[in-house]
Amino acid sequence: MFEKALENDIDPSLLYRGCSFRLVQMSGLPPDHENYARAALPAYGHRPDAELRLLSLSENATYLVGGDAPMVLRVHRPGYHSLDAIRSELDWMAALRTETEVATPELIPAADGSDVVAAVVGDGMLHVDAVTFIAGCTAEENPEAVGFDELGRLSAHMHDHVERWTAPDYFTRFRWDVEATLGPHARWGNWREAPGLTRDGVAVVERAASAVAASLTEFGQGPDRFGLIHADLRMANLMIGESAGITVIDFDDCGWSWHLADLGAVVSFIEDTPEAERMIVDWLRGYREVRAIPAGHVGMIPTFVMLRRMMLTAWVASHADADAAIAFTDGFAVGTVELAERYLSDRSWMRYE
Question: What DSSP line would sit under 91-131, residue for residue?
Answer without folding.
Answer: HHHHHHHHHSS---PPB---TTS-SSEEEEETTEEEEEEEE
